Structure formats: C-alpha cells, structure tokens
Automatic annotation (TrEMBL):
Its EC number is 3.1.26.4. GO terms for molecular function: RNA-DNA hybrid ribonuclease activity. Coiled coil: none annotated. This is Ribonuclease HII. Manganese or magnesium. Binds 1 divalent metal ion per monomer in the absence of substrate. May bind a second metal ion after substrate binding. Endonuclease that specifically degrades the RNA of RNA-DNA hybrids. It is an enzyme of class 3 (hydrolase).
Amino acid sequence: MLLTNLSEFLLECGTDEAGRGCLAGPVTAAAVILSSDFNNSVLNDSKQLSETKRDLLKPIIEADAVAFGVAHVYQEEIDTINILNASILAMHKSIEKLSPKPEFIIVDGNKFKPFLDVPFETIIKGDSKYLSIAAASVLAKTYRDAYMNRIHEEYPMYNWKQNKGYPTKEHREAIKKYGITKYHRKSFRLLPEQLKLNI
C-alpha cells in the first residue's frame, strides 16, 4: 500500500524523472501534489505498470491532482550539464509549474538540489512507496513516451516508438548503421567499446 504523505505539510509534492538511461531524447520530470484523501489502487511505480495502465492513469492523475507540472530537458542541455544535473533541472522546472506552490518536496532517488527554500527529502525507490512520487513517475513516463513517439515519425529506423530511446540491441544496431541524429545524446557512450573498433 503506497503512503500519501511523508511530512505534516498539506501541500507536499512528489517528483520523479523518466529517460535518464536513454541514448536519445530528453529527460522528462513531473511534480505532483495530491490531496490527502487521494486514493487509487492501480497507481504504482510506473516501471511496474503496463503502458495501458499508465495511459489510463494519466488523465485520472491530471484530473484529481491539486497541481501537477511536467518538464523536458533536451539532449543539448544533457550534453552540456550531464545527465544527473539535467534530471534535477527537469524536476526543478516541473516543480516551478505547480500552483499552489509546494510546502515540502519528496524526491525519488538519492540526489537533489534545494529548490528555492522549500524543505525536501530524497527517498530511494520512492516511486514504490509514495503516491505522489508514483503519480509523478507515471506523468513523466507518459509525456516522455508521447514525445519519443512523435520524433519516431521523423527517424523511424531507430524504432523509438518501441524502445523510447533506451539502449536496446536494435537501437544500437541502428546507430551503427545510420549514425546519430540531432536527438541523440552525444555525451553518452552510444555504442559499446567493442563495436567502436569495427567502425
């Protein structure tokens, strides 16, 4: 059973990101404030849910949340500031969109930088412990997937519709065959070392 709140604050927001380990596309974060009486038996860490369930939950979360925000940080910025900083920046940008503003922030993972002067707590595997982080994980994942589906139309040979930019064997084979696109993260090791020797 996922918990509602960690703090005593009424306006507690959960935040999480998606796409951190991808070779292409943005890292996407969401922040969600839920009311203390919010309940949903299906909601869980987005990685534990099927795409169908995530797509069903997205409009429910958006309709029932006190506030939510979603933000992308794109590959050019990831290459400039690195993926950890880009993930935290995406979380900050998603929190900035919240109205009302949160009084407390709970973050999935163990790394975060202070957002203004709002107190926060990082929680390892928070998306499987707290409803607001689980809700944020679902929004981050569904918004990022929708973006990857759009850019798939532009470069169908990488099959982003299926792999969403993650380093699947097929995605790496396509990079080997076609090279990289403007959507690829150039600072990432796009091909394993042993493949680089053959190019």
